[in-house]
Amino acid sequence: MALPAPSGPGVRPAAAPLPFLLLAGAGAAFFILPLIGLLLRTPWNLAWDQLRSTEVLTALRLSMLASLSATAVALVFGVPLAWTFARVTFPGRAVLRAMTVLPMVLPPVVGGVALLLAFGRQGLVGSWLAQVLGIHLPFTTAGAVIAETFVAMPFLVITVEAGLRSMDMRFEDAARTLGASRSTVFWRVTLPLVRPSLVAGAVLCWARALGEFGATITFAGNFPGRTQTMPLAVYLALESNPQAAIVLSLLLLSVSLAVLIALRDRWLGTP
Amino acid sequence: MTLDAQIQATVGAFDLDVELSVAAGDVVAVLGPNGAGKTSLMRALAGLLPLAGGRVALDGNVLEEPAAGVRVPTERRPIGMVFQDYLLFPHLSVAENVAFGLRARGMAHAPALAEAGRWLARVGLPVEGDRKPASLSGGQAQRVALARALASHPALLLLDEPMAALDASTRVELRRDLRRHLESFRGVRLLVTHDPVEAMAMADRLVVLEHGRVLQSGSPSEVTQHPRSRYVADLVGVNLFRGRASHDVITLAGGGTLTAAGAGNGDVFAVVHPRTVALFRSRPDGTPRNVWEGRAVDLDLQADRVRVHLAGSPSIVAEVTPAAVRELGLDRGDQVWIAVKATEVNVYPA
Q1: Least CA distance to A178: which residue of chain B?
Q2: What pLDDT digit, counting tens, does each position of A146-183 carry?
Q3: Chain A residues whose beta carbon lies within 8 Å of the beta carbon of residue B43
Q4: Fewest CB within a 10 Å sphere: which of A164, A223, B200, B341?
Q5: Shortest CA distance from B47: residue in chain A
Q6: Distance to chain B for A186, nearest Cα, Å
Q7: Could you tell me the end-to-end alpha-carbon distance of chain B, in angstroms, rounded to an integer?
């Protein structure tokens, strides 16, 4: 008797039960319909004018500034944090790591409240910052950056940490046998080798920061030109100027799509 | 220049306890099966694996001695290391890889690259500098790794399985090249391998390692002719000949000839396992192609077998059972006929 040819899971065409296919179709439609709605209802003839209106431009500029700043802050603090999680064993590491990625699952509004309690006028650090240094973070652009960093940095940390864990550490050994100091090894070997993770983490972090809503509105408020980022502008425009809201949404959607395409090798794989 | 090392180190449940002394004139090969602790030994010498005890001194300078609180970090040891899979930095060009050690030790970019170019020419890759390591063949990668390790003029050169990542067809040629480069290097040379033929071809001295301990050390001929344990005998206790093959007949450097199936032409190593050497009281007839007369100079009893050292042309070691020795009535000084089938002579290009 001939043995059947081996086949991997999911490789051969399967005869799925009909109800199963219907459910899968409904699930897919759930994702596709809102996108179609957005595209169909976009007032294309007005889109360009809407994009050029002052309020949209202001929100766009602020969003760019805040999200890019948040990404920069996340890189400065997140890469060393990721390196520490990947390479240093210390008591409480698991707990600390869980706390730093908590914002990924925490409702952003709760994050905003927590930020107020820490950096607000009466907050743990905030009162000291206000009294000693005269720095007020809540309801400022800096506050918006902090809110976005809080929510977005975990994406960078876990991506870079995964990259560091999967890299072959013997490259670092090789560099050390060639006389490279620890900092030379880090800058000339470690960072270049985890560059794909670094780029992916930064893009992910930036996309998350760009879309941030809950923590920003709670901690930084909603002041046009100061803390009113694109998602906030979209939400408000929905009441006053729905067409502007749709155009802004389309803009944010394009950014998300661009990110997805840029990172396709990482997420979508190659079919 | 000499390396003196007593290495005690622990890796997980495995512990390494090795004493090693290497003079600059010798190429020393550490030979052992996978898991014997060879790579750990290399890492310990490089300072990548901290010692639990012992001492590593190069030319009298102590690199590490836990009892005295001395530990020179890897980056300040005068070493060059060729790793098993070469570990060329994939993001740097070939020339930048070779220049890496010079740059790390403070040389400016341009002179470091110029020096790297000279090293690449020396290992026979004068125009490959701009390529990325991923585009190199295994043999080219090995030469780049060697150039990278040698470029900063180390006092101690460590090679961890330098041939393991190569395919059999390029191995012979590269072994010859590597041997030549090792000969021109003035420093302490230590090579790790699991391949006995490679060890004997490359090294002046063998150190046989198993389970983190040295079983035996000595010149290749000492170790192969007088293996001091069953394990060493199985691993390297073979008859190794050098010679020149012509139409399947090998004229041996030490006198005599051997006929081998498929020996080809040119310089070769011929390896004959003692188990395959048959002994007779009178000239045997039959198919063996290699039949000659020799004198038993020594009988070496090892548990369940006897290693008979035979002087003749060539001299050879046979391994027979004690019962066979009794049947032959064999004793020191006796003349016997020696037979080896042509198919039992394994030939390796030298």
Answers
A1: B101
A2: 999 999 999 999 999 999 999 999 999 999 999 999 99
A3: 173
A4: A223
A5: A177
A6: 12
A7: 29
The pLDDT of residue A121: 83
- Domain of residue B279 covers 239-349
Sort out which chain B residues have CB atoms less than 8 A from A180's CB and list them: 75, 100-101, 104
- Chain B residue closest to A174 (CA)? B87
Is there a single domain that holds both residue B212 and residue B252? no
**Alpha-carbon distance A177 to nearest alpha carbon in chain B (angstroms):** 5
Q: Which of A172, A198, A195, A203 is nearest to A185 (CA)?
A: A172
- What ipTM does the predicted assembly reach? 0.79
Contact map slice: B 5-34 vs A, CB within 8 A: none
Contact B47, B209 (CB under 8 A): no
pLDDT tens digits for range B110-155: 999 999 999 999 988 888 888 999 999 988 999 999 999 999 899 9
pTM higher than 0.95, yes or no?
A: no
Which of B75, B89, B105 is the closest to A176 by Cβ? B75
Put simply, the answer to whether A176 touches B149 (Cβ < 8 Å) is no
- When scoring A168, A177, A184, A188 by the number of chain B Cβ atoms within 10 A, the one with the most, hence best to mutate, is A177
CATH of the domain at B89: 3.40.50.300
Please say whether the dihedral angle defined by the alpha carbons of residues A258, A259, A265 and A271, taken in this order, is positive or negative. negative
Domain boundary among B236, B259, B280: B236
List CB contacts (< 8 A) between B79 and chain A.
177
Residue where the block lists tokens 């998350």: A208
What is the count of structural domains for chain B?
A: 2
Note the CATH number of domain A65-225: 1.10.3720.10
Coil/strand/helix, residue B78: coil
Q: Are residues B185 and B248 in the same domain?
A: no
For chain B, give the secondary structure using H, E and C: CEEEEEEEEEECCEEEEEEEEEECCCEEEEECCCCCCHHHHHHHHHCCCCCCEEEEEECCEEEEEHHHCEECCHHHCCEEEECCCCCCCCCCCHHHHHHHHHHHCCCCHHHHHHHHHHHHHHCCCCCCCCCCHHHCCHHHHHHHHHHHHHHCCCCEEEEECCCCCCCHHHHHHHHHHHHHHHHHCCCEEEEEECCHHHHHHHCCEEEEEECCEEEEEECHHHHHHCCCCHHHHHHHCCEEEEEEEECCEEEECCCCEEECCCCCCEEEEEEECHHHCEEECCCCCCCCCEEEEEEEEEEEEECCEEEEEEEECCCEEEEECHHHHHHHCCCCCCEEEEEECHHHEEEEEC
Q: Which CATH number covers residue B261?
A: 2.40.50.100
